[in-house]
Amino acid sequence: MKDTPGVNWLYALPALALMALVNLLPIGETFRLAGEFGRLTTDVRVWPVLRTTLAFTVATVSLELLLGLAVALVLWRPFPGRGGVRACVLIPWALPTAVMAMAWRWIYNADYGVLGDILYRLGLSASPQIPWLADPTSAFWACVLADVWKTTPFMAILLMSGLASVPAELHEAAAIDGAGPVRRFFLVTLPLLKPTIAVAVIFRSIHAFGIFDLIYVLTGGGPGGRTQTMALYVYDTVFRYQELAYGCALTLVMTACLVLLAALLLLVGRAPESR
């Protein structure tokens, strides 16, 4: 039977119509309800919140990329019990974010937290009572650490899929030419892994930019709004202060930022290929 493009689109039409109904209508409603765009220029909270969101995105994605690459390289090499270790590494990613955030909140507790007690026993702190979530700087990095712990396995999985596409013959040829493990990594593995790294960074950047549940449970955006992200600010605007029009405007701004971020990362990822 001859393949007809028009017939293929006809088969896909019901699914496309359903997707349009589910996705496009809410987006159109957001545009309809959005208002007070001029308030964005006078709202003193927008730019600090946006800076915090960008800083959180850059910090978490950078650390997750480095740690995920290290974990992927270790787990890619055969060793006894590798399957069990791989399964254990996935546990943080499999845990619900809210449950994981509650566990980290207990770890960071200023009165009976495990982290402060460990540092005190190691002689790295003068007191076991450390207010991790009460100080603006330490609260921000506490959120970063919790997110890195949870999401590094996801980054490692993506990078391991990229390692599977690297031909073993190239490593063998480089080894014959006298290249050591480090040089083979930078000359063979890393260049072939760049497309996978680009995809992983884009996925994680979009997710980190829209982070909500972890910070909502861990700090609620405090102290003093230091850990408040765009998603949390939109939530407070719409549900706490009942300002629907301005909340929709913030949502559109957040969506535009995500689109620009994804486009920028795509351009950066394709730049080496064009040279």
Can you offer a commentary on this structure?
This protein is mostly helical and 275 residues long. It has twelve helices and no strands. It has helices at 5-33, 46-76, 82-89, 91-94, 97-107, 114-121, 136-163, 168-176, 181-209, 213-218, 230-240, 244-274. It is globular, with a radius of gyration of 23 Å.
Number of helices: 12
Name the shape in a single word: globular
Order of helices and strands: HHHHHHHHHHHH
CA-based gyration radius: 23 Å
Count of domain modules: 2
Write down the CATH class of the largest domain. Mainly Alpha
Strand residues, percent: under 5%
**CATH topology label of the largest domain:** MetI-like fold
Task: Describe what is shown at a glance.
The chain has 275 residues and is mainly alpha-helical.
Task: List the keywords.
275 residues, mainly alpha, 2 domains, single chain, globular
Explain the layout of strands and helices:
Elements: H1 5-33, H2 46-76, H3 82-89, H4 91-94, H5 97-107, H6 114-121, H7 136-163, H8 168-176, H9 181-209, H10 213-218, H11 230-240, H12 244-274
Helix pairs in contact: 2-7, 2-9, 7-9, 8-9, 9-12, 11-12
